[in-house]
Design brief:
By secondary structure, the chain is mainly alpha-helical. It is 49% helix and 9% strand. A three-stranded antiparallel β-sheet has the order 3-5-4, with helices on one face. Strands 1-2 form a two-stranded antiparallel sheet. Strand 1 and strand 2 form a beta hairpin. The radius of gyration is 18 Å and the shape is globular.
Length: 216
């Protein structure tokens, strides 16, 4: 926000380009790999889109008006920010860019990404041949561990769970299987170390990741 125009639209930014900077007296953090989890409250990533959005609002406008500003966003969207980011953002983004998105949604459920057990946004201009491997190792695998821990916590007391908690346990078990299958999809793609030329356009390049990215 402290520079004009588009910045870091290439796969190998320098440390200087990705260094934190000050804006209105607050530190602004740039995402180090251009990969942003999009699972909101259903994950434990400190750089999830929901967390990053709230952090940015806090950094720019401060603690005193944070609740007021988040409520303003909820009212403007007509729904909770978590719900909008996890269920509505992808459709909004693809329509805004006329089905040629610059953020790509890697999703464990490509046909119904809103219901996916795992999904991350990737900034197309910062992708390289190791991006899929990063998604698999730095995001999918930790998320699988998170799901496993949540299942264990609920299973330890399964006899006393409420109906809602039992439903959550069943959902987590389904997510565990979904992520296991998706890991195989990413593994195959990661081994290919796919590179692409931005001049070929979104349609041609997006198709190279078919089966791992949400259908447009």
């Amino acid at each position: 926000m402290d520079k004009p125009g588009l910045n870091i639209a290439h796969p190998n930014p320098t440390e200087e380009e990705t260094a934190r900077y000050k804006y209105n007296g607050h530190n602004i953090e740039i995402d180090e790999d251009g990969i942003v989890p999009l699972m909101g409250e259903d994950c434990a990533f400190p750089d999830d889109g929901l967390v990053r959005t709230k952090d940015l609002v806090h950094a720019v406008w401060g603690e005193g008006s944070l609740t007021e500003n988040i409520n303003f966003i909820h009212d403007a969207l007509g729904m909770d920010l978590h719900k909008w980011l996890t269920e509505k953002f992808w459709g909004y983004h693809t329509s805004m860019y006329k089905k040629k998105p610059i953020y790509w949604l890697f999703s464990s459920n490509v046909k119904k990404p809103n219901n996916a057990a795992f999904k991350v946004l990737v900034y197309m201009h910062r992708m390289d041949k190791y991006t899929v491997q990063k998604i698999q190792r730095s995001y999918l695998h930790p998320h699988q561990e998170y799901i496993k821990r949540e299942i264990e916590k609920l299973s330890d007391n399964e006899e006393n769970l409420s109906r809602q908690e039992l439903k959550r346990l069943e959902e987590l078990r389904n997510h565990e299987l979904e992520c296991r299958d998706y890991n195989e999809v990413l593994k195959e793609l990661a081994n290919q170390q796919i590179e692409f030329d931005l001049d070929d356009g979104v349609d041609a390049n997006y198709a190279k990741f078919e089966g791992a990215v949400a259908k447009i």
